[in-house]
Specification:
Layout lengths: L2 H13 L11 H19 L2 H48 L8 H23 L3 H30 L2 H10 L4 H39 L2 H4 L1 H19 L3 H16 L3 H4 L7 E3 L3 H4 L3 H6 L10 H8 L17 E3 L27 H4 L1
Length: about 350
């Protein structure tokens, strides 16, 4: 086993650390630490082959530790959703909902979605493979989120007072045509208020989105901006279809996401300096694909930059296709951007923009 390659493996595994607060129950992390210590001992003895085997065990357990940690986070998020859903259901029942209410069937249909969410959760508990657990917990979380959104819409509608005012009018012993006229008046007085609020919030959301795009939010919050656009488009569609309560809720969600953006914090974020080559059978890693990653150069044609920077360290310098699994590929700064450390898949990096001269910003 080449001493240099082994040192790189040790460096990589040692760099994968987690917050101490989340390690107490993570057996995979504990195993990774044990194997890493054994690997270092063998390295000190000069037995690089044995050290390599232990470092591989450490690396495998670090991967499992990370997956286990993500599962823990998802479970905590699900528990939070369950608690929020219970509160919403209690509030809706306090507002009063029955068979005469126009949202009654929708309220009952949510029970089916909750059963699906719980089903995914229970299936996840039974799975042994971490990847299967993770996928099922994520599906469960998405179903619980869907329920929460629907319940929020129902509660907003009930709080508008339309159903209560209709019910009060219908209880009066008056001719049917008079009751219909009064209900129509109620709808004409309450609905415009909702329409105005929905219109106002939709405009605010659209203006905030334009501002965030100008602030290059997509560079740092690409996924969040996509979600904001989805919410705004859905809000607009609901507004056009006169579903003002739904429109209000969606616009608020879009605005809430944008309110979480923290550019001061992101100003100190940097791009990775090294990328560890993955197993080709799983990722098809090559210089072309690595250059295409949005935290590298966002352009596969820039593979030549990586080749020139790493040429001397390749097993065959004349063949850029021969890159070893787990090898660290250096990523030189291309447009003045700051690059430090080894790429961590669990860390959020800014998206590299080839048109920007980062030296001006830094």
């Amino acid at each position: 086993m080449n001493k240099y390659i082994f040192l790189l493996i040790i460096l990589f595994v040692s760099s994968l650390t987690f917050s101490q607060d989340i390690l107490n129950d993570n057996e995979y992390y504990k195993k990774a630490v044990e194997f890493l210590e054994k690997a270092k001992e063998e390295f000190e003895k000069g037995d690089y082959d044995a050290g390599y085997k232990f470092s591989q065990e450490a690396k495998d357990n670090i991967g499992k530790a990370n997956e286990y940690f993500l599962i823990q986070i998802t479970v905590l998020k699900i528990d939070s959703k369950k608690s929020d859903i219970k509160k919403l259901e209690d509030e809706i029942n306090k507002e009063g909902i029955n068979e005469s209410n126009s949202r009654y069937n929708e309220f009952n249909s949510i029970k089916k979605t909750l059963e699906e969410a719980e089903g995914y959760y229970n299936q996840a508990d039974l799975k042994e493979k971490l990847i299967e657990k993770s996928e099922l917990y994520q599906l469960s979380f998405e179903k619980y989120s869907e329920c929460e959104n629907k319940l929020n819409n129902i509660l907003s509608y009930l709080k508008s007072g339309i159903e209560l005012k209709k019910e009060t009018i219908e209880k009066k012993s008056e001719p049917e045509e008079i009751i219909e006229t009064k209900i129509e008046i109620v709808e004409k007085t309450v609905i415009p208020d909702q329409r105005y609020e929905a219109m106002e919030l939709l405009e605010i959301a659209k203006k905030e989105l334009i501002k965030e795009i100008r602030n290059k939010a997509e560079k740092y919050y690409n996924n969040e901006i996509k979600k904001v656009k989805e919410y705004i488009n859905s809000s607009s569609d609901n507004f056009e279809n006169e579903k003002y309560v739904e429109s209000i809720s969606l616009s608020k969600q879009a605005i809430e996401i944008m309110n979480t953006f923290d550019y001061k914090k992101l100003a100190f974020e940097i791009f990775p300096r090294y990328y560890k080559v993955q197993d080709y059978s799983k990722t098809q890693d090559c210089l072309w694909k690595i250059a295409e990653e949005n935290f590298v150069y966002n352009d596969p044609l820039k593979w030549t930059v990586l080749y020139e920077a790493n040429k001397k360290r390749l097993i065959n310098p004349e063949n850029p296709d021969m890159i070893l699994k787990w090898k660290l590929i250096e990523i030189p700064s291309l447009n003045g951007e700051i690059r430090e450390g080894i790429y961590n898949p669990n860390k959020k990096y800014p998206v590299f923009d080839p048109s920007i001269n980062y030296s001006d910003e830094n």
